[in-house]
Amino acid sequence: MLIAHASAAENVLRVLAWPGYADPDVVKGFESRYHAKVEVTLIDSDEALWDKMHQGKTPQFDVLAANTAEIQRYAHDNLLAPLDLGSLPNTKRQLPRFRALSSIAGLTKQGAVYAIPFTYSTMGLIYDRKQVSVAPHSMNELWNPRYRGKVLDYNSAQHNFSFTALALGYPDPFQLNSAQMQTITRKLIDLRRNLLTYYNLPEEAAAFFVQHKVALMFGNYGTQQLELLRRAGADVGYVIPDEGVLAWLDCWSMTSAAANRPLALAWINYMLEPDVSRLLTQRQGLANTLTEPPESTGKSHILWIEPVENIDRREALWSRIVSGDRPERF
Amino acid sequence: MMRHGLTLKLSVLLALIGVLASGTTGYYAYRANRTMLVHEAERSLLTSTELLGQRFTMAINDIAADALVLSTMPSAATVALDDDGRSVDNPTRDRLAQVFESFIAQHPEYLQVRLIARNHYGLELIRIDRESGGTVRVQESALQEKGQFAYVFDTLALRPGRIYISPIAVNHEHGAHAAEGKPTLRVGTPVADARGGVVGVVVIDVDLASLLRLSQADLPADYQVYLANEWGDFLVHPDSSLTFGFDKGRRVFMQESFAATKALFEQSTQPVLLNGLTQPNQAANHVFSFVRRPFGESQGNRFIVIGLGKPLHDVLVGANMLGNSIVRMVLIFSAFAILLAILFARALTRPLHILADAATHFFSEHTVDALPLRRTDEIGVLARCFDRMRREIRVQMDELRSKQHELTHLASHDGLTGLPNRMLFMQKLEEAIDRARGSGERLAVLFIDLNRFKQINDQYGHSVGDDVLAIVARRLQDVLHSGDFVARLGGDEFIVLIRGERSADAAPAIAARIVRTLDDELTIDDQPMTVGASIGISQFPADGDSAEALLLNADAAMYAAKSGGSGAWVSYRELIDIRRARTGRGKRRRSERESEKVEPADDGADVIA
């Protein structure tokens, strides 16, 4: 009985993933190759992911997909198991920037690897090719008075402070001191005065873009947003600014409670198969870690989002900036 | 058993039909009523939804009228153009602010009333905010730049006199007092200077909840209100945690909660009606109505979707009440149907029972009940046929019986004399012997042979012979007692059985009477003639204990009588005595010892001959 139960458990892989990461055809391919059964649980927010990982004493899953900041939290709480790169031969297919695991904050801890990059999305500049004849090179273009009233910005405290820090040339956009914060606040008021408006939803952005002939926007949803704009009739381009671009990076990790570790590693390795990774780009408009997307090159400076120095502070300032407080109020 | 069988079966069958019919009728009436009520509820819900939409639009129009009043006040353009928000002292602006304050005081649904300049990045010049229980005029230093908001830049783009209506969103503007965090609708209109140039805007922020409360004032309390923006995000939902999902990073769409509303968000403007009766998957236990309404028409084809829901249970209260009465009625009608079925079955089977009874007791004379001959239906026809058949059969049976009787008579009687024949005599004799054995009774058999019949037959012909035989038979009957039994054995031989005491008189009294009457002259066709008879007598039990033996011995005695001379009779006893005497003589010749006292009159060999 015990043996039968154990072997049945060995053949089941419990996967916690985001929509589009483990589509049924992908799962079926894995199941037939490894004679295993895969149980996929989908989550649609970091909060839902956190809740699922904290059901029961130990995680009820073998592998999970999460962004770098979340991975850092789980690793810190000892919910993840270190990964043996020897069991993940497909990591050799990855672009150099994703093989340099120690250069990405949160993936390694005391020399051990806890996550393998899987997919990412940059937050570059989207511009109207008709109004902006030469592709912009810098985030500073958002402040260009030429485009006054024709700029869109995403309504987010974290990212606005971070990309403004990049535009100002600060070395670490995630860790800002109060002097830097003050400068950035001023700069963000300037940006506000140059904007048409802030957007929250990609649909909203597309509507503003077309109806108000927007020239330039901060593309929070990255390349995923482009398709929506093109469908709305906009002739748009996408650039990664020279000073660098913010990006989120989702990785696969194995939980410390994984029952069948070889199978869990096989899953992570399978996710890096060219055919599987390519589906992400085809179906979700997301970048994969094996091939360079057209808008970036190996030299593109991508900054993976990290926890910021003080989110509440940024939120408080941002709320006043967005609401229209004048500079002398700060 | 059979009687109750048919009645019971028929009663059960008819009762079942009755119960089934009333039950089915009741059930379908109940179903039809439910469907009707639900459709009625859908229609009335649709009317309410459309009315709600109209009132919502009308309420917005009222707000727009207020905005227009404020925007067209002459001082509005002056302030919008000249004021930079920094000068502390501006009496024109303060007077205008008082007007703004009076507007917000009169309309509890207004959260903010503002005058915003085109210049200075959309700086607020006058801003009256609602605050717990009252209003507050925002001080100069706290006034904000609002040029980045659509309600400013879109309104500025309008021609004077036109109205801007914002999408409904949660107000996240910092320092907005009571408005902060509230679902808000903004109504704006341009402020134009004397030359018609737009120099600013008047914007009224309205609390969505208050606005809806006004619009749905007289809706029944059990109605649930739904409102979605053009993308389907819920703005109003009975579960408030599902509203403004886009604001919380987890969007909740109407077209996902109610798949049927998907068409409303594409092109369709047809109302969507749903009910839990026919679409339990889409509208569990509710009736819903959704309509799409244009919203803020000046902004292109924006729209909202308004929905109303009502618990199915409330809709079906009437149907359930009717259902209860239907159940009661069905029960009553079923009881009635059972009763009727029993009565009808009995009425139907009763004539059948009578017929069956009549058939069962076909040959007995008494009839239990009169046959239902007067009925005009099939049963009447059957009864009449049966009755006719019964009568015919009876007539034929009677005929058959009389024929049988006749045949039996012919078989046991002589056709010429009407006397019993040899067969019947033998039967009667055997019966008499059987009886006599038990009772010890005595019997006598007299064998009668006519002496001169052959000569009469030869001399006068067979016809006269036959007449002679008939007369002989009559005379024999005349001289005998009614208890005696006389039969014709055949030819000119007759035989008589005497029972009881009188058998002792057979010889000589009865035999003598017979000989006498047959010696009397008889006249046939004027021819006198005498027939005469010889009689042999045997007696039971002395002369034999079987019919054959008695007959044979009487016959033997008759021969002895005939050979002894005419008109004589001899009993078998006498014949035995004669024989014994003759046998004794023979023995004496052989042994010389035995003596014989009896001396017969004639030689035994002669007697036999």
- Give the CATH topology of the largest domain in chain B: Alpha-Beta Plaits
Report how far apart the termini of chain A are.
70 Å
Q: Extract low-pLDDT stretches of chain A.
A: 1-8
Number of helices of chain B: 19
CATH architecture of the largest domain in chain A: 3-Layer(aba) Sandwich
Keywords:
heterodimer, A: alpha/beta, 8-stranded mixed β-sheet, B: 609 residues, alpha+beta, Beta-Lactamase, rod-shaped, disordered C terminus
Map the helices and strands.
The complex is a heterodimer of chains A (330) and B (609).
Chain A: H1 2-10, E1 12-17, H2 24-34, E2 37-42, H3 46-53, E3 63-67, H4 68-76, E4 80-81, H5 96-99, E5 108-109, E6 112-113, E7 116-122, E8 125-128, E9 151-154, H6 157-167, H7 178-194, E10 197-199, H8 202-211, E11 216-218, H9 223-231, E12 236-239, E13 245-255, H10 261-271, H11 274-284, E14 287-288, E15 302-304, H12 311-323
Parallel strand pairs in A: 1-2, 1-3, 9-10, 9-11, 13-15
Antiparallel strand pairs in A: 3-13, 4-13, 5-6, 7-13, 7-14, 8-11, 8-12
Helix pairs in contact in A: 6-7, 6-12, 7-12
Chain B: H1 2-71, H2 74-82, H3 91-106, E1 110-117, H4 119-122, E2 124-131, E3 134-137, H5 150-156, E4 164-165, E5 169-170, E6 183-192, E7 198-207, H6 208-215, E8 224-228, E9 234-236, H7 245-248, H8 254-257, H9 262-266, E10 272-275, E11 286-294, E12 303-311, H10 312-315, H11 317-360, H12 378-412, H13 422-439, E13 443-450, H14 453-460, H15 462-479, E14 485-490, E15 493-499, H16 506-519, E16 522-524, E17 527-529, E18 533-540, H17 547-563, E19 569-571, H18 572-591, H19 604-608
Parallel strand pairs in B: 18-19
Antiparallel strand pairs in B: 1-2, 1-7, 2-3, 4-6, 5-6, 6-7, 8-9, 8-12, 10-11, 11-12, 13-15, 13-18, 14-15, 16-17
Helix pairs in contact in B: 1-6, 1-11, 14-15, 15-16
